[in-house]
Amino acid sequence: MKTQVCIVGAGPSGLLLGALLARAGIDHVIVERQSADYVLGRIRAGVLEQVTTDLLIEAGVGERMQREGLVHDGFELLFKGERHRIDLRILTGGKVVTVYGQTEVTRDLMHARSAQQLPTFYEAQDVRLHGIEGSSPSVSFRNKGVETEIECEFIAGCDGYHGVSRQSVPATALKTYEKVYPFGWLGVLADVPPVSDELIYANTERGFALCSMRSATRSRYYIQCASHDRVEDWSDDAFWEELKLRLDLEARGRLVAGTSIEKSIAPLRSFVAEPMRFGRLFLAGDAAHIVPPTGAKGLNLATGDVKYLSDALIEYFIEKRETGIAHYSSRCLSRVWKAERFSWWFTSLMHRFPEAGEFGQRIQEAELEYLVGSVAASTSLAENYVGLALR
Ligand code: APR
Ligand code: PHB
Fold it and tell me: CB–CB of 210/221 below 8 Å?
């Protein structure tokens, strides 16, 4: 089988890249290790930057997001028992974010792809990349037991942190940077009304908490937990009791508990692999970088990579120019590192670090008090939160 671009991974990165390439008439195939249902079953974050919502609309899959997504023009910081609103719209001169679950983004992209009957191999086994340093790379895998090989001109590694693409780059050609945080996030999804109309990020002496949502009837909550915690260590009741202890009195009174429809613990790490291009292989999204979820940057960084990559591939195939692919890695990494910095800073500010002691807690509270009292400081927070422009 031959194509122009072989995309490895059918998560948001791979599916969005496929949608943008299809609109430009560029032949491509997606090869995904899991089933479509498995991919849809992964519950992830839910805050979309304007860059992401614009791209979903450009890809022709933004209609439900525009109809059902919740436009948020601010969020609250809770510390020392008080909530302080960060007015995104005013501080950024009109920018906002949209709350719309990543699962729904993936669902919309999958439905559009299926309607266009674009070639997608799910449950591909033993996926391997070949000849990425040459001019005719390929991707091999077992499809329903049949050995299959796709010859292509470029491979897009959209297969996430644990994927095969980054591992296919010789270790000597790749520089990685990593920071693992000494805690995790215990997340619960429940069909209960959100505690507030906007997100609440809480810094408390018991640890971080986040009150988010998916709709007016479905809420998403997180609490910081120990790295060694297991999800079976946390009953629903224990979760709701701990969350209440991390909220202010008003939110505690409004909180509606309920049975979790999803409950999981995510480790927190910062990770970057450089460069994001090696020969005919491009890395995009989680395959190249990971951020702690505090700043809700994971999906939004992935879509930024995909925009740069789709523009570069379209320029190559349609205009026969190589400027975009030559500058892909440096353009992505410039934006990636700024988001890594913001995500690290926001995580460092909002979480309890045992080794920092009471002095560390007071320093965090002092920074938060400065932040909410300074237009300059809260503007910096706001412009990073709504997302930096694509260059
Ligand atoms: N072969 C084929 N597919 C693979 C392989 C492989 N060897 N390994 C992993 N995959 C698939 C995974 O099953 C998954 O569907 O690649 C896809 C990668 O998707 P994501 O991990 O969601 O990464 P990405 O598409 O870049 O989206 C980034 O997802 O993880 C969140 O927080 C992250 O919001 C961010 C977003
Ligand atoms: C979510 O709704 O899952 C969410 C929102 C904001 C974050 C992280 C996760 O910073």
Answer: yes
